[in-house]
Design a protein that fits this description.
- The chain folds into two domains: 190 residues, D-Maltodextrin-Binding Protein, domain 2, CATH 3.40.190; 199 residues, Periplasmic binding protein-like II (D-Maltodextrin-Binding Protein, domain 2).
- Helix content is 45%, strand content 13%.
- It is built from 18 helices and eight strands.
- Helix 9 packs antiparallel against helix 10, helix 9 packs antiparallel against helix 17 and helix 17 runs antiparallel to helix 18.
- It comes from Lentzea alba.
- This is Carbohydrate ABC transporter substrate-binding protein.
- InterPro entries: Bact_solute-bd_prot1, SBP.
Length: 426
């Protein structure tokens, strides 16, 4: 009877291994190796790195669960956090969802405790590590990539408006938000049928994320009404909309994608990964028309990037943390960058020659690696994000700004946004 039970158990574990479930045998694969599951989304550039890690650690088998988009990945993560089971040993978290993870920090391991002792937060840019550090100084995630911001623009459209088009000369236009919107007034007055920027929400989010205090203060109190910077941003952006500066496009929509190809707007807030988006959507017929400059209104900023976390559900937490530490080490960040363009967040990686010498031919042979490495250094601190921060950005302020672009009174739209923010924050 006991022998029969062992046979059934072995069969179940073998099937579970095939399905990438780690519940059997304390995370053992069918061949007896320690199985580490890692859940990611989109492209992290890890496929070849997994092979390299397994070759150096013959006792480890890595099983990847890769989701095509970030939203379903994170929905699955939060569902399984609530259920108390089913998570991978290593779970990737995108920065837009990090505040929700930090609100559930008790369900994740402190990587300073279980990770390799030589892997300390000072390996990363300070603001990158700080964003994944709890109020009681527990480190929840090892930083992967980042999205330092620069400005991209259409040189030919700038020339049509009588604006400078050389990357060095345009910096003065992008020095502050005031100078940016002033240049937008000049542009729309000279060029008909083309907007200055793609959509109001894209500009508003970039402005908002530069402030020390955003939608929430550090006690998680909603401060939308009491934070004058938010209303000031709202006024500046909606004024620009009223003057015809917005193409009124929703980011990542089909219309937005087509807007690149047809030249519907002249400037784009441009994190490092946006270069690939522009090249793909604008197409080869627009090669050489787009340029990027190492300037961003009111200083630096960041849009994008992720973390590797180890949930307490993991049955191999220490080994999972070791894998996460290795994947995010400078050497591997450079390899991931070369494979998929994910921009490094570790200090040593940002000084790597392979990064600094990287050239983007589509944008006029610019040394894009060096440009964005410099932009990353301009980010001084990560804005504190409350538990509902991402929800306010995506489901409250973006739709409210879109309603202004569709003709709604800005003051009325503001009141609606405040009311919806209060509901979301409860």
């Amino acid at each position: 009877m006991r022998s029969r039970r062992r046979q059934i158990t072995a069969l179940v574990c073998a099937v579970a291994s095939t399905l990438a479930v780690t519940a059997c045998g304390a995370g053992k694969a069918a061949d007896g190796r320690t199985e580490l599951t890692i859940a990611t989304f989109n492209e992290f550039g890890y496929d070849e790195l997994f092979k390299e890690y397994e070759a150096a650690h013959p006792d480890v088998k890595i099983t990847q669960r890769k989701t095509g988009q970030g939203a379903p990945h994170h929905q699955n993560l939060f569902t399984k956090l609530g259920a108390g089971s089913g998570l991978a040993d290593v779970e990737a978290v995108e920065e837009g969802y990090l505040s929700q993870v930090m609100a559930k920090a008790g369900q994740f391991n402190d990587l300073k405790e279980i990770g390799p002792k030589d892997v300390t937060p000072d390996r990363w840019l300070p603001w990158k590590a700080e964003a994944a550090t709890t109020k009681d100084r527990r480190l929840i995630g090892f930083g992967t990539d980042i999205g330092p911001l620069a400005m991209c623009y259409r040189k030919d459209l700038f020339a049509s408006a009588g604006l400078p088009s050389d990357p060095e000369e345009v910096k003065r236009l992008f020095a502050t938000w005031d100078s940016y919107f002033a240049a937008g007034d000049q542009f729309v007055a000279k060029v008909s049928g083309v907007a200055w920027f793609d959509g109001a929400a894209q500009i508003f989010n970039a402005m908002h994320n530069q402030h020390d205090v955003g939608y929430f203060d550090r006690s998680d109190k909603l401060v939308v009404e009491s934070n004058p910077a938010i209303r000031s941003d709202w006024t500046a952006v909606t004024n620009a909309v009223a003057k015809g500066q917005s193409a009124k496009l929703v980011a990542f929509s089909n219309e937005w994608n087509t807007g690149f190809k047809l030249g519907r707007f002249a400037t784009k807030t441009c994190p490092s990964w946006m270069l690939g988006v522009i090249e793909t959507q604008a197409g080869p017929e627009n090669a050489g028309k787009w340029a990027v400059t190492d300037a961003f209104p009111n200083g630096g900023g960041n849009w994008g990037g992720s973390y590797l976390t180890v949930p307490k559900q993991s049955r191999n937490a220490a080994k999972a943390a070791e894998l996460a530490a290795w994947l995010t080490a400078p050497e591997q960040q450079i390899k991931a960058f070369q494979a998929r363009g994910t921009f490094p967040s570790q200090v040593d990686a940002l000084e790597n020659r392979a990064l600094l010498e990287q050239v983007n031919t589509y944008f006029g042979d610019v040394k894009a690696g060096a440009l964005f490495a410099a932009q990353a250094q301009k980010v001084k601190a990560a804005q504190y994000k409350g538990p509902a921060d991402g929800q306010l950005q995506e489901n409250v302020f973006a739709p409210a700004l879109q309603s202004v672009e569709q003709g709604k009174n800005p003051d009325e739209a503001w009141r609606t946004a405040v009311q919806e923010a209060q509901k979301a924050a409860k």
